[in-house]
Amino acid sequence: MLDTRKGEALLAVIDTGSFDQAATQLHLTTSAISQRISAMEAELGAPLVVRAKPCRATREGEQLIQYLRRARLLEDEFMAGRTGDGGETLTVALAVNNDTLATWLLPGLANFLAAENVVLDITLDDQDHTYELLSQGVALAGVSSNPKPMRGCRAEPLGAMRYRMLAAPVFAERWFPHGLERQAARQAPMMGFNRKDKLQAEFLQRELGLPPGSYPCHYVPATDPFMHAIELGIGYGLLPALQYGSRVQDGSLIDLAPGKSIDVALFWHAWRVQSPKMERLSERVIAAARAMLSQN
Questions:
Q1: Cα–Cα distance between 214 and 201 in angstroms, integer?
Q2: Strand 153-167 to 262-271 pairing
Q3: Alpha helix segments (H runs only) across 195-296
């Protein structure tokens, strides 16, 4: 049996990134935190924490953290069910991509969160990288473009987010008067979300044969400012249909490559064995996604 105090110390170190901050969070001394971690490592016969800045879990530590987070969730839900007054909130850690958070996820969960007394602890990353957060034990469930479930988990297809290459009319007139052309794209500033974002590069490689790095690029790592920058004519880039809405129809944005889009398939990753409330959360996420995303 694992000592819950040692498990709490491990989670605190990983969540805060340091032994000092973990000690502050748990109202202990740094020495006490270190002793608990060292004792757990001795009991399990493996290092659990890479003592760096910030601290991070080893492979063995990641596996243990997955277990500890699930155990904590099950315990919290059990205790909340025992009180029967609905006063205890349940915290669920999710890993999702920015466009999911900015479009369909919160509207789909709003009523559920209020009715079930659940609060979310959301970690954001690119859809190609949220899978890593799940494997590291940072989140209990999440949205990823990776279709392969981790061991002990399931991956449910949600649908696809469809993206089109858009620009403001004044930008399109200046840089692409004859449509999206290779030579013009070498000079026109493109919008990138961050350096993990490979979607824009994939589109230009596919449509124009332009390799990454052969064109100028702005980086704006926030969903709404990213679209606003395109609307202002700062650059051009891919936007999801759920975000740009009717802006192409009303002429406020121009589709630079009509009839050409790029779809990002998304999957809901969660443990096969879940608490009842987590199971209901998964059902709500899947239903919301399938109602909003492309199912072609």
A1: 10
A2: antiparallel
A3: 199-208, 223-231, 241-244, 276-292
Residue 228 phi, psi dihedral angles, 5° rounding: -60, -40
Is residue 25, in this structure, part of any structural domain at all?
A: no
Domain that holds residue 239: 161-264
Region of 2 (left: φ > 0; alpha: ψ -120 to 50; beta: rest) is: beta
Structural domains in the chain (count): 1
Element (H, E) at 57: strand 56-57
* 108 SS3 class: helix
Tell me the three state secondary structure of residue 96.
strand
Which amino acid belongs to residue 3? D
Sign of CA dihedral 98, 103, 108, 111: positive
Among 154, 159, 162, CA closest to 282: 154
Per-residue pLDDT, 177: 95
Q: Tokens at residue 142, please?
A: 């999440």
Greatest distance between any 2 Cα atoms in the chain:
69
Please state, in angstroms and rounded to a whole number, the distance separating the CA atoms of residues 160 and 240.
Answer: 10
Tokens 């007054």 -> residue: 85
Non-local (6+) Cβ contacts of 31 within 8 A are none
The CATH number given to whatever domain includes residue 212 is 3.40.190.10
Mean pLDDT of residues grouped by 10 in the chain (296 residues)? 85 90 92 91 87 87 83 72 62 91 95 90 88 81 92 91 97 96 97 92 96 95 96 98 96 96 95 83 95 89
pLDDT at 83: 56
